[in-house]
Amino acid sequence: MRNVLITGCSSGIGYCVAKGLRARGYQVFASARKQEDVERLESEGFKTLQLDLADPESVQDAVYELMLRTNSELYAVFHNGAYGQAGALEDLSREAMEKQFAANVFGWHQLTVMLMPILRQRNEGRIIYNSSLLGFVALPFRGAYNASKYAVEGMADTLRLELQDTDIKVCLIEPGPIESRFRANALQALKEQVKIDQSPHRQKYQGAIQRLEKVGPAVPFTLPPEAVLEKVIQALESPHPKARYRVTAPSHFLWVLKRLLPTLWLDKVLLKVSGKENQ
Questions:
Q1: DSSP 19
Q2: Which residues contact 240 (CB under 8 A, 6 or more apart)?
Q3: Span 184-216, pLDDT tens digits
């Protein structure tokens, strides 16, 4: 029974992947930031860890507990816990950007570094990063999240090269729109960090808020989180996993356009996509 650590399991993709891998026979350690979510996961029979990726001490404590409970044996980590800081870049403070990177980048890096000795001990394993199509194309009013996912892509690509002489494989999952609580959390972050009434973009924010408040899929081609689970299983079980697994039609489509179109043309497409989202 292989041990797998999954971050961000309170809902959405993390929760779905935790359930799916447990059903497949993996010994899943499901982590969440809030104690009430940890307790709920425990009530469902999961092995749990409380882990706040933005808090270095929390990351350290979670790894030490994981080492004790697994006898320092781990096959894989699925980096998933993150949130999206919405807002135009000129409306975001340095503090808002630091919070975004603390949760979405620095916590993931610290966790990876602390887990590396465990993976190297057996010279095998998988490090899987849940990125986004926003890790290779940018959309307006998502600058902080864009930047964090671009950083994740850079970390994963670098780590893959640095581990090429081992049997520790590094993979990226690049989903497009997935059913989750992501929009609700992004709306909360927007209201907390952006003074909308004082912004030169205040009229455009109204469309963004309507999209974030919408119940159910907000854009076409939205898939359930099981679509990500399918790719995580492939990344875990393929003897030669891909460096990237794209999920949803928009992710595949925009990847092709990114490679084929000049930047100016691609910008026009992305602005059009963003405009339709915010209508």
A1: H
A2: none
A3: 888 888 989 999 889 999 888 887 787 777 766
Count CB neighbours of 1 within 10 A.
9
- Write the CB contacts of 85 (distance below 8 Å, at least 6 apart in sequence): 92, 96, 97, 99, 100, 144, 145, 186, 189, 190, 193
For residues 4 and 73, the answer to whether their CB atoms sit within 8 Å is: no
How far is CA 231 from each of CA 61, 84, 203, rounded to the nearest angstrom? 29, 22, 38
- Whose tokens are 């492939």? That residue is 234
Q: How many angstroms separate the CA atoms of 77 and 6, rounded? A: 6
pLDDT of residue 125 exceeding 60, the answer is yes
Angle between helices 143-162 and 107-122 (to 10 degrees): 20
Nearest to 82 by CA among 177, 3, 12: 12
Residue 15, CA distances (Å) to 24, 96, 148, 232 in order: 14, 26, 22, 13
Strand positions, DSSP E, the chain: 3-6, 27-32, 47-50, 76-79, 125-130, 168-175, 244-247
Mean pLDDT, rounded, of the chain: 94
Rounded Cα gap, residues 163 and 256, in angstroms? 28
Half-sphere exposure of 28 (CA within 13 A, CB side): 27
CB 20 within 8 A of CB 229: yes
**Residues acting as catalytic residues:** 145
Burial zone of 108 (CB within 10 Å; 0-12 exposed, 13-18 middle, 19+ buried): buried
- Integer Cα distance of 259 and 126 in angstroms: 28
Residue-wise DSSP of 95-125: HHHHHHHIIIIIHHHHHHHHHHHHHHHHT-E
Indicate whether 270 pLDDT > 80. Answer: yes
